[in-house]
Design brief:
single chain; alpha/beta; seven-stranded mixed beta sheet; four-stranded parallel beta sheet; 11 helices; 14 strands
């Protein structure tokens, strides 16, 4: 039976303890301040640190994608660890070229018997949950084809809504692809956004609210609509972008209202924080990856 490695990038925001327990290999995404390059998850580990650096450097950061050499190093790491095959799970191709670059490297890599690259169509815990599912199945000695099939099914059961304080960062970095007319020209609003998971994985606006409390209500409506249609265990992630107090409140509220759902807390990765700005909030929901088995 082939031994299959799981590789992802730092926008998944997987805590090191989880990566270690599942033996997941991580590739860092670069954050650029002018000519200076910092690695997400290593040099910059939180949005709070990112915001501080923005104030100190008096300029706005951008992001880049991992280099081909970074992906090759990760594959070499898998090979040296005794793996026969590898599956790479990247952040959404709708906001990054990482998927395309990783795919090119994988096609030319000769150190492993098989390398597959999966477009998560998401970021943060939506991407991380896919890596965790793949790693769980790998530990159960599932085949690569089985892992790919279950990942494809898993993505059909995922949803996300998030809200940002300031849409200008998504516009500045070119990550807002649709729905600009919905929110364009309006001041002091909270745009409600999602990822087109079933399509190109791009970010689009799906609603707006005047206050964060109103945004939470709209996010909750989308989540309730999802719960009304499913008959399987659900896991959801409450994610804050440098607003731990509000994230904890959302978690308490959601846990109380939906006791059958397994909720977790997570922080937003600084790479994604470059595009969302300070204070964003998100809810990502999925079929519980632990309900899958070989």
């Amino acid at each position: 039976m082939a031994k299959i490695a799981v590789i992802t990038d730092s926008s998944s925001a997987l805590p090191q303890s989880l990566r270690n327990s599942f033996s997941i290999i991580e590739v860092a995404i670069p954050i650029l301040f002018g000519q200076e390059t910092f690695l997400g998850g290593q040099d910059i580990t939180s949005i709070a640190q990112l915001v501080t650096m923005m104030g100190e450097k008096k300029e706005l950061p951008t992001t880049s994608q991992p280099s081909p050499a970074q992906w090759e190093m990760a594959l070499n790491q898998a090979k040296d660890a005794g793996y026969d095959e590898a599956v790479i799970i990247t952040l959404s191709s709708g906001i990054s070229g990482a998927f395309q670059t990783a795919k090119l490297v994988a096609e030319g890599y000769e150190g492993l018997n098989r390398v597959e690259v999966v477009d998560s169509k998401l970021v943060n815990m939506g991407q991380a949950a896919q890596a965790l599912l793949a790693a769980k199945l790998s530990k159960e000695e599932a085949t690569m084809d089985d892992i790919l099939a279950k990942l494809a099914d898993f993505r059909t059961h995922m949803g996300v809504r998030f809200v940002v304080n300031d849409i200008s960062h998504l516009k500045r970095t070119g990550r807002l692809s649709r729905g600009q007319a919905l929110i364009g020209g309006l001041l002091n609003i909270k745009p409600i956004l999602n990822f087109d998971i079933e399509g190109d994985g791009k970010i689009g606006a799906v609603g707006k609210a005047r206050k964060m409390s109103g945004a939470k209500d709209l996010i909750q409506e989308a989540f309730e609509a999802y719960l009304a249609k499913v008959d399987f265990p659900v896991r959801a992630y409450v994610i804050d972008g440098n607003n731990q107090k509000l994230g904890d409140k959302w978690l308490k509220d959601f846990t109380s209202k939906y006791p059958a759902v397994s909720f977790e807390r997570a922080g937003m990765d600084p790479v994604i924080g470059v595009h969302t700005g300070d204070g964003a909030m998100a809810l990502i929901w999925t079929k519980d990856y632990q309900s899958y088995s070989k």
